[in-house]
Amino acid sequence: MNNESLYQFSTLTVVLLLLAFYGGTYLMTLGIRKKNEDADAFMVSNHRVGFGMGAASMTATWIWAASFYAAATSGYTYGVSGPIHYGLWGALMILFIYPFGRRFRKLAPNAHTLGELIHARHGSSSQLILALSNLLGSVISLMVNFTAAGALVSVLSPLSFQAGVIMAGVGVLFYTLWSGFRASVLTDFAQLVALMAIAIVIIPAVFFAMGGPTELVAGLDNLTPEQANFFSTDAILNQGAPFFVAVLAYAIGNQTISQRLFAVNEDHIKPTFLTATLGYGAIVIGLGMIGLMALTLGVEPLNGDMNNLIPQMVSEYLPPFFIALFFILVIGSLSSTADSDLSALSAIIMADVYGKNIARGKPDPKRMLFIGRLTMIIATVLGIVFASFSLDILVMLVFVGALWGAIVFPVIASCFWNRVTNTAFTTSVIVAMVMFCLARFELVPLTGMSGLFFELLASIGGGVIIGLMVFGFLGRILGIIAAVAAMIAMLIFATDFLRDYTVLLASLTAYGTSTLVCVVMSLASRQERFDFDTITARVGNYDEALDADDHKTSAPNQPQPAA
């Protein structure tokens, strides 16, 4: 059933497709360009993004190139439950920042990054830990998306991998550089509309070209018992549970979500996040069904590479017109995430690095804009260079994921509990990272007492995750009850068992360690309790502050009224 090679366009066709896509997005941004762009609009659109634009941008940002390949791989590997495990938990990453996002926005309504809030709460060291994790994550995300573009171009055309990487990088930078986040949001909306329209056509077309429901049902006999089981233990422990653990880590640690949280009009936060959750889940689960269909029909991935699965299915079963639509679909998805990464990186450098640390709270907005655009250029070059080397990014993703998991409790606790200290924050994150590495890379044997010790920490981590999720939606009391119940259940079922699933064990260990250290050090501290009301005054809009200063310095001296 497999062809020896995939369908290929001519070089001219691929170049014209890319010119049409990136040229169109650039023309869209011309309508919103300002002669004198301001820093706050460049970073968060002056906190005025509406519901439709916000929900579309959130959805498009999270449907990135990896979603296509990973969703199909999940369906192909784990069977009927695979697409659900990938799409559902990915959607929950968006949903579960909502209750905490309301608190973040209430404390710092004029913030541009979560790091600014943490800086106002703790100071530079805690803020820079958060900023560093976001910088690493966004650069790696850029690399992944440019790599996907290079692979797509090399597979479907005579052009080289490096040519595809360069064209995608330059194209994204071209339309994002001037207007920053505003350009990202506007093009995200158009890209999502196109993505949904094409997905609605492509997914059913492949499905029915392969035989439709009849062939799917008949092919279920080709599945193993685990793949045919909707509640497969293998799928839950190797994919579902690790993804579930990552939900809060990505929601709290990723600046692309935080940036949209601070950009959306405050009255529209709830519908924006709910709509994005549903949109992401529906599209990605649908993509995963292509992998399930390939599994039921006994299709073998070309050259043994799972990333070839979706291009292979589209190429084998659809005519060239649909393949061209698929090409635009993938380019649009990776571009919508790449431009969000550029916007996130520029905001972090502008606000967290320059605004709060170099300029010491008194930045020049015009200089901030220059720094933001320079950051985009440098980040694009780094993304292109790293992607061109085809580096193995899995190890780096492991570290970033662990860092995000290690900061979840300290960040959330810092915004609700007035006893958390800067020392407790930084120490807990560092210790959690060390413990994660020991478990993930098995630097100590996960047997006997040491294995039991890590399972204990992981059980605490499991309780923390469940407790935080319940706390976010149902309040403190129910959150504590849920955390204790989950921890007890983990202790009963995970002992002498969880050590066999290293990725899950290490991720939970990061949560449990950071929570334990942060709570103990905060309770032991005699530092004066923090006043949350001071955060709003410490985090403001940069351009408004500049205008106020200019008004003060330029106003003429007024005569004193007579007594």
From TrEMBL:
Pfam families associated with the record: SSF
Highest rank taxon of the organism: Bacteria
Keyword Transmembrane: yes
InterPro entries linked to this entry: Na/Glc_symporter_sf (IPR038377), Na/solute_symporter (IPR001734), Sodium:Solute_Symporter (IPR050277)
Bilayer topology annotation: Multi-pass membrane protein
Record's keyword terms, sorted: Cell membrane, Ion transport, Membrane, Sodium, Sodium transport, Symport, Transmembrane, Transmembrane helix, Transport
Subcellular location field: Cell membrane
Reaction equations catalysed: L-proline(in) + Na(+)(in) = L-proline(out) + Na(+)(out)
Positions of transmembrane segments: 6-28, 49-72, 84-101, 128-153, 159-177, 189-210, 230-252, 273-297, 317-335, 368-387, 393-417, 424-443, 449-470, 477-495, 501-524
Keyword Coiled coil: no
PANTHER family cross-referenced by the UniProt entry: SODIUM/PROLINE SYMPORTER-RELATED, SODIUM_PROLINE SYMPORTER
Family classification: Belongs to the sodium:solute symporter (SSF) (TC 2.A.21) family.
Name of the featured protein: Sodium:solute symporter family protein
